[in-house]
Amino acid sequence: MLAFAAGCTGIATYSVMDAVMKALSIESGAYSALLWRSIAGVVLTGAIFLARRQRWPGPAALKLHVARGLVTGGSVLLFFWGLVHVPMAQAVALTFLAPLIALFLAGALLGEQVGRGAVIGSLAASGGVLMIAAGQVRGGGGEALWLGSGAVVLASILYAYSLILLRQQAQAASPLEVTFFTSVVLGAALLLGAPWLAVAPSMAQLPWVVVAAAIGSLSAFLMAWAYAHAEAQLLSMVEYTAFIWAAILGYLVFGEAVSLFTVAGAVLIVGGCAIAVRGTSTPAPMTEAAA
After folding, report:
1. CA atoms of 256 and 88, how far apart (whole Å)
2. Nearest to 40 by CA among 262, 206, 219, 245
3. What is the pLDDT of residue 212?
4. For an engineered disulfide with 223, which of 46, 130, 154, 290 has Cβ 3.0 to 4.6 Å away?
């Protein structure tokens, strides 16, 4: 139950960070917002890591940190770019595809059996995506909205794979180590393109960059701790609370209304995931969090 509570808190804090990052991405672009947040995250978590005199990870753990950091980097960059063009609730609803995608990835990469429930669940979830798309058509969504939605779906695919790596990370390293080295790898990868792509944050943005880094690090720590103490079957359910937070924050901060098409699509996707994992001994992990 403590792991379940930690997971719920992690999702709530990450949703707040999503709102901060969306505002920063609108002003400076998703790449710059993510770069400066990652650097601030390295400083914050690195100070704690060094103060606690944590051991340096071994080769196996370090390999996992690098792999997940790179995969997570691609996922969150696509997600925050898409979030600029897509309402928060709609973007989060699309990320609910990740648990279902992870089921098929587990079958392809880990040799786990993909049952009939996964196939039925994928059909239901596909219906949910089509429902959200119908809402975009009805609302006259432009090219940016469609591109943003596509970016979020691609982010979900990468995130599903990163969660398979997260489960392995959580078993091999402490939550603080996972949080710190994920930020290090992500920040280092983004720095490669900084001379050409980065936009320096303004003085007004700097406090919010630090806030985003602190909240994101707290969320990552909570989710890593939760995954180290509970099975993915339990934790996959807490992810769906993100839709509630996204709807509330999207309305309060950005004035975004939640359409019935988005709600119906989210219900179908969540229902599809529930069908897919029912009776499965190794269900898929959660969706867009802990980045």
Report:
1. 8
2. 206
3. 93
4. 290
| Alpha carbon 27 to chain centroid, angstroms | 21
CA–CA dist 184, 39 (Å, integer):
8
* Tokens 């769906």 found at: 240
Closest CA to 227 of 159, 167, 165: 167
Tokens of 193: 């393109």
Judged on CB neighbours under 10 Å (0-12, 13-18, 19+), 288 is buried
Mean pLDDT of 90-97: 87
From residue 223, alpha-carbon distances to 55, 179, 233 in Å are 21, 10, 14
Q: CB neighbours (10 Å) of residue 203? A: 6
Provide φ and ψ at 86, rounded to 5°: -125, 140
Query: What's the Cα-to-Cα distance from 74 to each of 36, 150, 155, 178, 198, rounded to whole Å?
Result: 16, 14, 7, 17, 16
* Tens-digit pLDDT profile for residues 173-197: 888 888 899 889 999 999 999 989 9
Q: Cβ of 202: how many Cβ atoms within 10 Å?
A: 9
The residue ranking higher by pLDDT, 70 or 129, is 70
Structure tokens that stand for 34 in this block: 């993510």
Tokens (6 digits) for 11: 């999702």
Structure confidence by residue, pLDDT tens digits, 109-146: 766 666 777 677 777 877 888 888 888 777 766 788 88
Mean pLDDT of 97-106: 76
Q: How far apart are CA 157 and CA 144, in angstroms?
A: 20
HSE, CB side, 13 Å, CA atoms: give it for residue 154: 16
How many Cα atoms occupy the beta-carbon half-sphere of 75 within 13 Å? 22
